[in-house]
Amino acid sequence: MLSKYQILSVLAALFLLSVVQAADSNGLTDKDSISLYQAVSRASAHNPALAALNFELSAQRAEAELAGLSQSPSVTFEVEDIAGTGGHTGLDAAQATLGVAWLVEGSIRQGRQAFANAKTHSVLAEMNLKKLDIASETARLYLYCLANQARLEMTEQSVVLAEKTVAEIKKRLQIGKTADVELSRAQAEVARRKLDAEDVEHELASSYRLLAAQWGETIPKFSSVTGDIFVMPQPIAFDVLKLRMANNPEFIRLSTERNVKQAALELEKSKSSAPWEVKLGVRHYEANQDQALVAGVSIPFGERSRNKAGIARAQAKISALGAEEKALQVNYQTMLFVEYQEYLHSLHRMNAYRNEIIPKLESALKKTRKAYQLGRYSFLEWQSVQSDLFEAQAELLESSVDAHLKMIQIERLTGVQLASSNKDKEF
């Protein structure tokens, strides 16, 4: 499970959406809502995809334990000088030897153990990377839930506004200041807005189900998520993000993989010299019923470098990993620049819609409505301004969603949190 620090870093760096209340990290603040912190905590602890890695880690730890064991000695039994001729007929001159033989592995066993331990660390790095991927994906799905909640609120507001428009037209129709066709148009607009709201309701229900699946639930036990999708932190300078890219978990994984390759190289080098075999036993002489100790050593001879091909293969794998790391650095730096530029652009669009476009359209809508009541504007002109306002509000929401998605990707590329975090504060 991710540590509390890792979870908080992910939450702060991804998009700082939630109103996180002080509560048990494994429980809900209430039965109807869930916070981002709680969602990530549950996914980190119960995501089904982590089960396979947990089993793999257990298997690799057992493999490391086995690698540290020396080979079991072997028991030997030999009988000599039997079933011959003359004095060696039958068992009269038999010599029976009972002994124990074992390999002196030395550096080979040490290399095997170092290789197994390095592989264990590699699996741990992969598991941590997977957990961060799950946290990032959970945050992305949480964002979609929050965005759909905002969309539903916007469409419901548009229904209310459309219904007010119908009521206004009915008043003018009663006093003969408008035509029936305007009422029909306004009623059709209400029906369209209600249909849009129903569509969003279905999308919201699906997004809840996808989020709950992150911790293995097929039926969500919550009915809403908390947070403000329009809250954004100030961006960190690109040069700072670039310098801190070493925090990316993928580079940490490559570092552990390099240790595995280096351990494999040392193991191949240790195999260059074959292990000695030591023997110790007791010999029994049948002829005179005497016993004596027997000792011996078997030393391989030949070319000292017996494993040139294995060493060359291990060295080539280390070189290939270095090339992969350089390619990844170029790729990630390029991706970081692109994502950062798009993030800044989304922030600019948010500010433009929130501070310039929407306030002007709201002002225009009030003036147009008043002019319609006075008979100066037609219904089509009034409806056009309403549509422009609805579209601008939708664009503001989509720009916010885009900005948060870019923040998630920037965090994933750098491991740098974009703002400070405290799970008991509202962002």
Structure description:
By secondary structure, the chain is an alpha+beta fold. The protein contains nine helices and six strands, in the order αβααββααβααββαα. Helices cover 64% and strands 9% of the residues. The chain has helices spanning 4-14, 36-46, 50-67, 107-174, 180-213, 238-243, 249-270, 308-373, 379-414; strands spanning 33-34, 74-80, 95-104, 224-225, 276-285, 290-298. The strands form two sheets. The protein has a four-stranded antiparallel β-sheet, with no helix packed on it. Helix 4 (107-174) runs antiparallel to helix 9. Residues 1-30 and 418-427 have low confidence and may be disordered. The two termini are 25 Å apart.
Structural class per helix/strand content? alpha+beta
Compute the number of helices. 9
Instruction: Please bin the fraction of helical residues.
Output: 55-70%
What order do the strands of the largest sheet run in, or round the barrel if closed?
Answer: 2-3-5-6
For the secondary structure, the number of strands is: 6
Unreliably modeled segments: 1-30, 418-427
Instruction: Give the overall shape, derived from the CA principal axes.
Output: elongated
Estimated radius of gyration: 37 Å
Strand content: 5-15%
Q: How far apart are the first and last residues' alpha carbons, in Å? A: 25 Å
Largest sheet: 4 strands, antiparallel
Mean pLDDT: 75
Helix-strand string:
HEHHEEHHEHHEEHH
Helix and strand topology:
Blueprint: H1 4-14, E1 33-34, H2 36-46, H3 50-67, E2 74-80, E3 95-104, H4 107-174, H5 180-213, E4 224-225, H6 238-243, H7 249-270, E5 276-285, E6 290-298, H8 308-373, H9 379-414
Parallel strand pairs: 1-4
Antiparallel strand pairs: 2-3, 3-5, 5-6
Helix pairs in contact: 1-2, 1-4, 2-4, 3-4, 4-5, 4-7, 4-9, 7-8, 8-9
